[in-house]
Amino acid sequence: AQSVTQLDSQVPVFEEAPVELRCNYSSSVSVYLFWYVQYPNQGLQLLLKYLSGSTLVESINGFEAEFNKSQTSFHLRKPSVHISDTAEYFCAVSDGDNQGGKLIFGQGTELSVKP
Amino acid sequence: DAGVIQSPRHEVTEMGQEVTLRCKPISGHNSLFWYRQTMMRGLELLIYFNNNVPIDDSGMPEDRFSAKMPNASFSTLKIQPSEPRDSAVYFCASSPGLAGGHYEQYFGPGTRLTVT
After folding, report:
1. SS3 of A90, please?
2. Virtual torsion, Cα B51, B56, B61, B62, nearest 10 deg
3. How far apart are CA B109 and CA B87, in angstroms?
4. Three-state secondary structure call for residue B65
5. Is A1 on the interface with B (CB under 8 A)?
6. What is the largest distance, in Å, between two alpha-carbon atoms of chain A?
7. Which backbone phi and psi does B10 adopt, to 5 degrees?
8. Which of A102, B68, B101, B110 has the smallest number of Cβ neighbours within 10 A?
9. Spatial distance between the Cα atoms of B3 and A109, rounded to a whole number of angstroms
10. How far apart, in whole angstroms, are the C-alpha atoms of residue B61 and residue B44?
11. Does the beta-carbon distance from A90 to B109 stay under 8 Å?
């Protein structure tokens, strides 16, 4: 069965510093990969996704993630974070043959941006 | 589109009472998911439906929990009787499903349930 590992439960970082949130998934023939963000007291929002094509995907607010098939990773990065990026981030994976669109979520990484 | 709609947003009830959570998915989406989120256990998938049919309910914690999807625009999650350990935030999400190759899920704002 597909699984997702987020290696860091908490990542504290100072404002304007770069950040990387790590995500690894178990190998599969084809996968679709997602990052979701959850701000306090809100639902999860889709941040970015990889379905096919270019292995580097970007979000509208400066985050990017790179699909690395050989390392089965989909790490999330941002070159300069803001206070407003403080949130919990979830990596998720779907098997290409999965019926119904079920996603497997990681345990989440709490990003805390300090001034 | 208004997105996924959940009601109520907050529910406080006493142990032993029946609780019903409601969800309206995004119009045209074929799949619907119920999740539970707690500090201790994180985000757990309880059950999901495809075209109104339950596909996998292996995440439902026990028989006190039940879910229905009588039509494409409405689903309920019921807990009877409720217990304090059921206190959590319950999320509903919907997805276009396999049509068009879309797999992303869209989450509602959640229902915060407190059982005293």
Report:
1. strand
2. 80
3. 16
4. strand
5. no
6. 44
7. -135, 140
8. B101
9. 25
10. 10
11. no
Q: Determine the 3-state secondary structure of B84 from DSSP.
A: helix
Q: Which residues contact A35 (CB under 8 A, 6 or more apart)?
A: A23, A46, A47, A48, A49, A59, A63, A65, A74, A76, A89, A90, A91, A92
Residue appearing with tokens 């999400």: B93
Q: What is the C-alpha to C-alpha distance for residues A31 and A72, in angstroms, rounded to an integer?
A: 10
Q: Is B105 in Cβ contact with A101 (below 8 Å)?
A: yes
Q: What is the largest CA-CA distance in chain B?
A: 45
Best of B35, B103, B105 to disrupt the A interface by mutation (most A CBs within 10 Å)?
A: B103
Name the closest residue on chain A to residue B91, using Cα atoms.
A43
Rounded average pLDDT over B11-34 = 96
The amino acid at residue A61 is N
Q: Note whether B104 contacts A34, CB cutoff 8 Å.
A: yes
Predicted local distance difference test score (pLDDT) of residue A54: 83
pLDDT at residue number B65: 97
Per-residue pLDDT of A27-69, as tens digits, reads: 666 788 999 999 998 999 999 998 888 888 888 889 999 999 8
pLDDT digits (tens, 9 = 90+) for B27-74: 999 899 999 999 888 899 999 999 999 988 999 988 999 999 999 999
Q: Which residue has the tokens 């990052």?
A: A35
What pLDDT, on a 0 to 100 scale, did the predictor assign at position A99? Answer: 59
CA distance B94 to B110: 13
Is residue A77 a contact partner of residue A63, using CB atoms and an 8 Å limit? yes
